[in-house]
């Protein structure tokens, strides 16, 4: 879709809304802050019986402990996290996205993405920015579906679970969000 003035104004408004709503510390977290938040999120996920098969079977996990979403008709979201492989940080990533439509409110939520196959992980790592909805398919598991997850039912390349939702929006939307590697300060 060609960029139009209306499209550009909407994107700028969404970015401004997220920028104004995000505390300064969430925009420039250090490696130590991200690592601590990711470690706490992994412990929380280990306590969720429906996430345990995904943790055990995945080749890597991309954890965003806190994604801030907000807007009124035009919205956006932003968060920072880390890619874990064998329990060790293998890189740092940000997630950002804009949305349009009937929405109002603000929320924070965590997102865990479980890479079940090497080719899906390669797609993430080889891209300078990966837009969810292109490349390997991502299956978002809601609470009802998560209860039925076992290692024998895991057939998709990437699974995603949102957790720790707080706020006034209905759900964390990830389609169209872009995941980009970045280098946080030490």
Number of domains: 1
What number is the mean pLDDT? Answer: 79
**Secondary structure category:** alpha+beta
Low-confidence stretches: 7-26, 144-148
Give the end-to-end Cα distance, rounded to a whole number of Å: 39 Å
Along the chain, the helix and strand elements come as HHHHEEHEEHEE
Number of helical runs?
Answer: 6
Number of DSSP strand runs: 6
Q: Supply Rg.
A: 16 Å
Shape: globular
- The portion of residues assigned to helices is 25-40%
**Largest sheet report:** 6 strands, mixed
Share of β-strand residues: 35-45%
Describe the structure.
The protein is an alpha+beta fold. It has one domain. The chain has six helices and six strands. It has helices at 5-21, 24-27, 31-46, 52-57, 118-126, 143-146, and strands spanning 60-85, 88-115, 130-131, 138-140, 158-167, 178-181. Strands 1, 2, 3, 4, 5 and 6 form a six-stranded mixed sheet that branches. The longest helix is centred in the N-terminal third of the chain and has 17 residues, at 5-21. It starts with a helix and ends in a 5-residue tail after the last strand. Mean pLDDT is 79; it is low at 7-26 and 144-148.
């Amino acid at each position: 879709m060609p960029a139009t003035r209306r499209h550009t104004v909407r994107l700028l408004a969404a970015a401004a809304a997220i920028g104004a709503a995000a505390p300064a510390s969430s925009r420039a977290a250090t490696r130590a802050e991200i690592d601590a938040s990711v470690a706490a999120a992994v412990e929380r996920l280990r306590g969720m019986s429906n996430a345990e098969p995904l943790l055990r079977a995945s080749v890597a996990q991309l954890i965003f402990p806190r994604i801030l979403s907000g807007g009124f008709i035009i919205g956006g979201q932003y968060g920072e996290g880390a890619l874990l492989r064998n329990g060790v940080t293998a890189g740092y990533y940000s997630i950002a996205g804009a949305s349009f439509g009937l929405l109002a409110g603000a929320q924070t939520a965590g997102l865990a993405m479980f890479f079940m196959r090497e080719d899906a992980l390669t797609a993430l790592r080889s891209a300078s920015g990966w837009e969810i909805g292109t490349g390997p398919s991502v299956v978002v598991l809601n609470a009802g579906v998560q209860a039925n997850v076992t290692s024998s039912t895991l057939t998709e390349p990437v699974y995603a679970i949102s957790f720790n939702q707080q706020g006034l929006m209905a759900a964390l939307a990830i389609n169209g969000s872009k995941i980009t590697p970045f280098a946080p300060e030490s």
